[in-house]
Sequence to fold (138 residues):
Amino acid sequence: MKLDELEIGKDAIIASVASDDVALHQHILDMGLTPGTEVTMMKYAPTGDPMEIRLRGYELTLRRDTAARIELVDVHDTDTVARRAPQTGSVAHPALGEGYHPRRTKKAVPEGSPITFALAGNQNCGKTTLFNCLTGSN
Fold:
């Protein structure tokens, strides 16, 4: 079985990593996806790509095409506890080093004015996938 086929809530052991591309093979190993490591499938993005796995005590997002290169053995129900849901509520924006400034006026942005958005996040967390879904790009 390949990692991209693992069901949510299942654990498995990585048996091997197959890639003809030496740089990609090394990148996969550098992320901690080494043979003998136990991985847990946490969730899939609403579009199915990327996926979030847990290994070695941390969460990692991974694209499906990369996960398809990872062979698994010993698939079983997870023995790890699910993450606790974050607390919800109103929290003020910290504005520490982010260039965030509250609006002094409560006026609406004039129609036709350009609006600039930034999409930031960790590596392999799905920024491009989200952008493509929102814009229809590929």
User: Anything to note?
Assistant: The helical segments are 22-30, 64-67, 127-135. The mean pLDDT is 79.
